[in-house]
Amino acid sequence: MRKEDITENLNRVRARIVTSCAACGRDPDRVTLLAVSKTRPASDLRSAFDAGQRDFGENYLQEALEKQAELSDLDITWHFIGPLQSNKTRAVAEHFHWMHSVDRLKIAQRLSSQRPDSMPPLNLCLQVNIDDEDSKSGVLPEEVVALAEAVAELPNVCLRGLMAIPAPRESEEEQKQPFEALYALLDQLRERLPGQPLDTLSMGMSGDMEAAIASGATMVRIGTDIFGRRD
Ligand SMILES: *Cc1c(COP(=O)(O)O)cnc(C)c1O
């Protein structure tokens, strides 16, 4: 994609974040834009970086590692946001700053034990299957507290909050329902685990970003509206 188009798209998304925050009285500095760059070439990430973007989200491990090698001269904060098999945790522990899709204790345990001592703790979000869909990965809402309590005990990870990918809905009002449910779950965790930072709600994509921000998102994960449609 042309660099000018990526820059323009980024500026448009940033403006939407500012507008959404203004509409609900939030500080736009409290919403981090995560550029979701899966399937995009490293040159597109470099264009976005040149336009000021620093946080990038990747879904596919091998693809992400290749881009990281190509972009090693850039000071990027890397987020892993896709499903992860437990035999692939080591590369995430060694090459990422954040992991958003932890949905079982075994993954968190392996990430903690494989995180190099020379690196700061890996930031984790628990992925919640907020609509209780059979097809979706994520821990069920009623199992979140138990998982969070166990993850909070692990030494080399830092439990930052919750992530969800709700089922598509028609209106912004309907889109807010699962996001507000995730917000309430994070509130519950804060009460149970007062020693943890728990400052992150990773929710909102190109089609539901406004509803997510209105519901308290602190990290929005935007792919299509920055890099265009994926094939
Ligand atoms: C692809 C993806 C996104 C971005 O979705 P868009 O609709 O392209 O903005 C966000 N989060 C996750 C987990 C994704 O897999």
TrEMBL record:
Keywords: Pyridoxal phosphate. Its cofactor is pyridoxal 5'-phosphate. Pfam families: Ala_racemase_N. Belongs to the pyridoxal phosphate-binding protein YggS/PROSC family. Pyridoxal 5'-phosphate (PLP)-binding protein, which is involved in PLP homeostasis. HAMAP family: PLP_homeostasis. This is Pyridoxal phosphate homeostasis protein.
